[in-house]
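Aim 2 progress update. The chain analyzed this quarter is reproduced below.
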Amino acid sequence: MIKQRLNPHAHSTASDGELLIEQIEEIAKSRRTKIIVTDHNSVEAHREFTSQMIGAGIEVKTQEGVDILVCGQREAVLELFDYELEHRVDPNNPIFGEMNISAVKLVGLAREMGHEVILPHPGTLEGVTMLSLSDQNELARHDPLVELNGRMTSRINRIAKEFARKMRLKLIAGGDSHINEYGQYTSTDNTIQDDKDLAPEDILTKLRLERKRHRMRVSRPGFRESIATGKQILKAGGLKVLQMLAKYKGKYLFGLPR
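Predicted structure tokens:
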């Protein structure tokens, strides 16, 4: 049996991450951890890049302001973006703005196309717990994974655990990795064993279908790490990030209460 580790939530320079996708691959190889790069509203990092250690994905901000992770085979993720999402991007804020698609429609479309779906950081104002109960139930019908987020506080992750329990959904650890410091790209992971060396998206499918609990390691970032992550996001996004934060006032900023 082959022991395999996966971080399914990471960002590159194509949105607000510190590292190029090639640099993330080097970390993945050195730490023997597969990483799915899920940039905000963008798949540009995957256009000309393939690797057995790097999976393809995207973090979509829906019209409700709720984030959804969609992961799958590289060509299929590019197809989803090019034919279903690109024309829905906010031209005034393409990375951090809301796409013109609802969370329910996005998840249904993604699952119809065979993608895996992760609900990141429930309990924040960008999480699915901000949706109506009927929308939450509709999302749960598609059997998404629910994220324990490596950048969030223990309180936020307890909300995620309760949401997963209530909806009878499987938990998964996600790094939400933005910076190289603090080992952020590999400090949160999921471990499985299989007789085959699985692609990142196949690890997600295996985790979802096997209802038994698997080994998860979730980072608990300190104050300095949270500030460093916040600085990187502000550096990458500038005014557009500040506009988003102003729009969603009262939410949790980089895992810390405002």
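The domain at 7-23+41-247 is CATH 3.20.20 (TIM Barrel). The helical segments are 21-31, 74-85, 103-112, 133-140, 154-167, 200-209, 223-237, 239-247. These observations will guide the mutagenesis experiments scheduled for the next reporting period.
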